[in-house]
Amino acid sequence: MSIEWRQTIREFFDAKNRAWLSGDGEVLEQLAIRPDAVRSCLDDIKALSRSAMDRGVHYRKSRTNLKILRTSPTTNGKVRVDLMEQLTWIYKDGEDLKHQARLQPVRVTLTNSEGRWKIERLDRIGEKEERSLIKKAMDFRPLDGNSNVRQARFDRRKAQRYAELWWNGFNPQYKQFEVDCTNYVSQCLYAGGMPMAYHSRRDRGWWYRGQGKTANWSYSWAVAHSLRYYLEASGRTTVVLDPQQLMIGDVICYDWDGDGRWQHNTIVVGFDRSGMPLVNAHTVASQHRYWDYKDSYAWTERTRYRFFHIRDVF
Known about the structure:
Blueprint: H1 2-22, H2 26-30, H3 39-55, E1 58-73, E2 79-93, E3 96-113, E4 116-124, H4 129-137, H5 156-165, H6 181-191, E5 208-209, E6 216-217, H7 219-222, H8 224-233, E7 237-240, E8 251-255, E9 264-271, E10 277-281, E11 285-290, E12 304-310
Helix pairs in contact: 1-3, 5-6
């Protein structure tokens, strides 16, 4: 029985791997109880196609690696499987071949229907936590007179090297968050030389202290909404209006719904042939992803961006 549901998972993600290039998700629907059970996958495939068309690039190859993290039986003979999906795409950007990668945790629920295992539900792990974090941090105040800030120089290459080293992993010196995008960007900035602004309160400054169970951190270190406002008020950045004005090590903040609640951050690690930023990120771990995130399920027509150029000297 175990082999049978594993076979369904293999068939599903093999079909999804082909669909990234073809844009045809019909086979995915056939492996599901009903089409809306895999709607998120179909939306992702359409989003990647839309992004490629907007950018004028052509995806040539796609590779998917899966690692099963946990399996557990549920009621009524169903099986729930948590797995890690690692995606790599090769695409043509003008005359250059480039790669883009993601690492995302997925929860699949399967049920036996008429003697065959099928996908009943597919969820992205960790989606809900960011909303609760933002709610806690809405009262964040970026700075006050008690902040302890030293002068420093920002090394963009160090920030970039750190971003590339840990894009698909977690530095054990820091807490690993289920929603990790801001924690990751903060670590990159700190690796580049941005000094912490220490404070006794979590809703002030930008800081991380301790390790393991004794670790503590400011909201701005780990919550997207708070980091966006810290960067603007800190005196360590310049807000620019055009993404082409950004440099390696700069930061982009995202408000998916345009409602003033900022939910995601990325760090610039490279550029395409048009000078547009390519970014790394966590939560859905991403490497060399196109900056506008139109290939993301989270993107909407109301999405707003904030572009922060980190000053060379603070």
